[in-house]
Amino acid sequence: MISPTVADPLLVMIATPLDAELVERIVAVDERVTLLYAPELLPPTRYPCDHRGVETFRRDAEGTVRWAELMARAEVMFGIPGDSAEGLATTVRGSPRLRWLQATAAGAGEQVRGADLTDAELARVAVTSASGVHTGPLAEFCILGLLAFSKNLPRLLADKQARHWDHYPVRELKGQTLLIIGLGKIGSEVARLAGALGMRVLAVNRTGTSECSAVDEVHTMNELGSLLPAVDAVVVALPLSDETRGIVDAQAIAAIRPGATFVNAGRGGVVDETALIEALQQGRLAGAALDVFAVEPLPEDSPLWELPNVLLSPHTTALSIHENERIVQLFVDNLRRYMNGDELRNRIATPRPR
Question: At what angle do helices 185-196 and 135-150 cross, to 10 degrees?
């Protein structure tokens, strides 16, 4: 990767709303850093750490010209304007000097694939994801899902609504067997938390090996079908790729032990959603905690909205008030690496040739 010489200024553009304190952390990395930041040209945020902004936002003619001038000068960029594949494509093509872009999403690989960049564009601009930044919040959601259905949250809510008072036993997570599908950063953190609660943790990944000490057994993906009938809960923590799309198919869902809990904090396209809905409607599963879906936003006519044994999050579980702070911490480390000519963390691999 080409990095500036000691005497060269490095033009870094902030393309997403960011608190002034975090902007200062970027400036403080090195005296060569020259910031291109015009917050008045960025969309108002909908909530803290929002990277897309209000969708109706439009720059006026003068603002459009200023924005284009900033992009044309930038060598490094923090954030994808609009936080979308379309925004990435427009940015790369409107920024001829751009060499590296730090995305704010852990799943930025999907944005890269969706941008339909040419081989020359992919070779010119390195894109790094925010992988690892959202690990804690996502793992906590998975534990929430496991606890919710172990403690029969649907019945608690129904009894509260009906003002019904009754005593009954509930399950404990301690002693249950959990299967984690995908043992990356999120899956490994789920394993650590689940183990701390006394669960026996199994996992499957591509290699059948892992350095994660919190996992009791690691198997290859082709063993998935034989493991599903023997576990009390399943957590999906896989990214979406050609290899993972639909990997938790109808046959896999049918193989899950009756009464088990299902959690998906990976990507909706990994799971056969129709088969999952059928299993939930028939009561074959105790419940499902879902942060991701086959189509997002979830269509209004989806049965998932009405099912009492579904805990539904609108793909918001990864969001945290500390998100930007953690992304900037990653960016600052990568910025030093870039200036030293070192390998960047979380660089998204692109296939060659296409």
Answer: 40
Q: Could you give the CA distance from residue 276 to residue 353 in angstroms, rounded to a whole number?
A: 37
pLDDT more than 90, % of the chain = 94
Tell me which fold the domain 10-133+320-340 belongs to: Rossmann fold (3.40.50)
Residues of the chain with pLDDT under 50: 4-6, 353-354
Both tokens assigned to 112 = 């890269």
Cis amide linkage into residue 96, ω under 30° from 0: no
Q: Which residues pair with 220 in a beta bridge?
A: 205
> In the chain, which residues fall in CATH 3.40.50.720?
10-133+320-340, 135-312
pLDDT score at 5: 46
Taking the alpha carbons of 198, 206, 289, 327 in that order, is the dihedral positive or negative? Answer: positive
CATH number of 135-312: 3.40.50.720
pLDDT (0 to 100) of residue 6: 41
Cis peptide preceding 297, ω within 30 of 0: yes
pLDDT tens track for 149-185: 999 999 999 999 999 999 999 999 999 999 999 999 9
Active centre residues (catalytic): 267, 296, 315
Per-residue pLDDT reduced to its tens digit, 67-126: 999 999 999 999 999 999 999 999 999 999 999 999 999 989 999 999 999 999 999 999
Query: How many whole angstroms separate alpha carbon 281 and alpha carbon 275?
Result: 10
Could you tell me the pTM of the whole model?
Answer: 0.89
